[in-house]
Design a protein that fits this description.
binds zinc ion; about 10% strand; alpha/beta; five-stranded parallel β-sheet; 8 strands; about 350 residues; TIM Barrel
């Protein structure tokens, strides 16, 4: 057994309060999830839907009191239609599918024609019934133009696309960069060493890739350039380790909100700072899980995180994955009841006013 494995088995001697929260305090909207085929290979269902059984998902939603889920896997064209048929149209009010933009246009056409093609795709997706636009971290870290240059989120060729999103009333959920430690050397001193060992492709501190700060600055420049477009900064705008920065971004950009998806590990190790952020910005933080396929234990853990004052508990619901992020435990936010409704649902409902959820 390696040193790494034996460390992962360390038990805590603490005997602490364990609160079981089976249902959210108010019906919740999971504003960040993946119900389509786009990322299904991540859960071993390559080419198939990440959710095998939609009625079973609806039953789970009833059980844990999740009234609606945002599906970020719509893509465009026939794949968007298939997602809308399976979720939004089959179960009105329970799902909101976002579309994507076909970035390959940026390599296939000159700048003006690429911009036009991206806008035309968004308009067609909106007409089909997409409820928002999802932008993934490949923008800035992978998408390239015809000259093989990386395209950053605030690239001028994307201006018309993001302006059109605002005009059409489509919120933009954007995941830029990743945890800052993914740019650090991958060694024992990196707090996410286990995670980067499991996913070496997530280490971005390499020549030819932008720095973490360059990406977050580009995200902020994008949000500032389109004041009439609402942006949802996924994963606390990828700055969960620096909540002062998140707070300043929210102060400076009224058209920005953030979601907590895939970041309860980071937020729960600074529960007081996180609660202060929600108290200062009660209308700007959305609940989302980014955990798929959704499980009962996963939602229960999120309710415990938001509602209890439990201390030093595991941030992951799957005992087979003891430290998917880093080797720390989290504490609950103990949010006041008046903060729970906007966090769980009200803020998402406002941002998704055109989504019918
Ligand atoms: Zn996601």
């Amino acid at each position: 057994m390696s040193t790494k494995q034996s460390l992962s088995l360390i038990r805590t001697a603490l005997k602490v309060q364990e609160t079981f929260v089976p249902r959210a305090a108010v019906p919740a909207i999971d504003a960040h999830n993946h119900l389509g085929r786009w990322l299904s290979s991540w859960v071993g269902r390559d080419g198939d839907w990440s959710i095998a059984d939609v009625p079973a998902l609806l039953a789970l939603m009833e059980m844990v009191d999740v009234c609606a889920i945002v599906n970020l896997d719509g893509r465009w064209g026939a794949e968007l239609e298939a997602n809308l048929d399976r979720y939004d149209r089959a179960h009105p009010g329970r799902f909101a599918t976002f579309c994507h933009a076909p970035w390959e246009e940026l390599a296939a056409r000159p700048a003006a024609a690429a911009s036009d093609a991206l806008v035309a795709s968004l308009r067609a997706s909106h007409a089909a019934g997409a409820k928002g636009l999802k932008v993934w971290k490949d923008l800035g870290l992978g998408v390239r133009d015809g000259d093989d240059r990386l395209v950053m989120p605030d690239d001028a060729r994307l201006f018309d696309l993001f302006e059109a999103a605002g005009e059409l009333g489509l919120p933009v959920l954007i995941h830029t960069a990743d945890p800052v430690a993914f740019w650090w050397p991958v060694d024992e001193a990196n707090e996410r060493w286990d995670e980067l060992g499991a996913h070496p492709e997530w280490a971005f501190g390499r020549p030819g890739l932008p720095s973490y700060d360059a990406l977050i600055d580009a995200l902020e420049a994008l949000v500032a350039a389109h004041p009439r477009t609402t942006f949802i900064g996924a994963h606390m705008a990828s700055a969960a380790e620096d909540l002062a920065r998140v707070g300043r971004m929210l102060d400076d950009h009224p058209n920005l909100v953030v979601d907590v998806s895939a970041r309860i590990a980071e937020l729960g190790r600074q529960p007081r700072a996180t609660r202060r952020l929600l108290e200062r910005h009660p209308t700007r933080v959305l609940f989302g899980s980014d955990a798929f396929p959704p499980r009962r234990e996963m939602y229960e853990l999120h309710w415990r995180f938001a509602e209890s004052d439990d201390e030093q508990f595991h941030y992951h619901w799957d005992p087979a994955e003891p430290w998917p992020s880093g080797r720390w435990r989290i504490s609950g936010l103990d949010l006041a009841p008046e903060l729970l409704e906007p966090f769980y649902a009200g803020n998402a409902r406002r941002v998704l006013a055109n989504a019918g959820i």
